[in-house]
Amino acid sequence: MKKLSISFVLLAIIMLAGGCSSSKQVAYFQNIDSISLAASRGLYDARIMPKDQLTITVLTTNPEASAPFNLAVGNTIGTNGGLSTTTGSLQGYLVDNNGNINFPIIGTLHVAGKTKTECEEMIKNKVMPYLNANENPIVTVRMSSYRVTVIGEVGHPSIVPVSTEKMSIIEALASAGDLSIYGKRSNVLLIREDATGEKHAVRINLNDANLFNSPYYYLQQNDIIYVEPNSVKSKNSSIGNSTTIWFSFIGILTSVASLLVNILR
User: Can you tell me whether residue 5 is helix, strand or coil?
Assistant: First the structure.
């Protein structure tokens, strides 16, 4: 019994030591006081990619002049080729695999790889020849299908919508409930698809504050973030029903042994 007690004490010490060593990996940005964040300077602009859904509006002082360029759900083309407009929301433009959209009057426009501002400027230049000289159109482009996916050891795995067309990996993880205590912070997997459809995998260390200087700090549309389980979670997952039964059996034997020792004294 004395040996059994010593074994339990040693086991407890090992578990505590493991807990202390793993706790060093919990804190984010551990070296932030010793590095320069100058490389993180600059504002991020998302770039349009194939399969993005765009909402585009063209406004002028004369609504009738800009109406043909605003393809609303309620717009119909009559038998005489004229545009009949009724109340309805603007129709989205799905960017095809070649990075193009089919814009009213103008025709095919290549928008992939452009920022929102660049796309607005291009459409404005294409529209102006169809308007009166005194018309100065205002073009607005929004990416309405921007989203990222967060899975693995987080509070609530989810598809996170990005309404501002700008989201950092920290914001995405926070939106998914942050990492659980079992999440491996030093080896977060980012899967990114480029404009050709090719996937790329990048490993990110949340313990390292150099993440702020990384080109992967800001996420692109359709990025996937996977938080792997750490060694503690992996070991716990190996404890199945059979292991639980063995622990119960050992507990019963220990109780019986203690009872016999007390009786035989």
Answer: helix
Q: What are the φ/ψ torsions at residue 197 (nearest 5 degrees)? A: 95, 0
Burial class (CB in 10 A: 0-12, 13-18, 19+), 228: middle
Is residue 18 within 8 A of residue 115, CB to CB? The reply is: no
Residue 122 has pLDDT above 70, yes or no: yes
DSSP structure string for 180-224 = -TTB-TT-EEEEEE-TTS-EEEEEE-TT-GGGGGSTTSBPPTT-E
User: What sign does the dihedral 126-132-141-88 (CA atoms) show?
Assistant: negative
- In this predicted structure, what is the pLDDT of residue 195? 87
**Would you call 138 helix, strand, or coil by DSSP?**
strand
- pLDDT higher than 60, residue 242: no
Phi, psi dihedrals of residue 55, rounded to the nearest 5°: -115, 120
Instruction: Round to the nearest angstrom and report the end-to-end CA distance of the chain.
Output: 13
Q: pLDDT by residue (tens digit) across 42-90?
A: 889 999 999 999 999 999 999 899 999 997 755 455 555 555 555 456 7
pLDDT for residue 98 is more than 90: yes
| Cβ neighbour number for residue 173 with a 10 Å cutoff | 22
Asked whether 189 and 229 are in contact (CB, 8 A), the reply is no
Give the model confidence (pLDDT) of 190-203 as tens digits. 999 998 889 999 99
Question: For position 110, what pLDDT does the model report?
Answer: 97
Distances (CA, A) of 94 to 100, 110, 141, 174, 244: 8, 12, 13, 29, 54
Question: Closest by alpha carbon to 180, among 20, 18, 21, 26?
Answer: 26
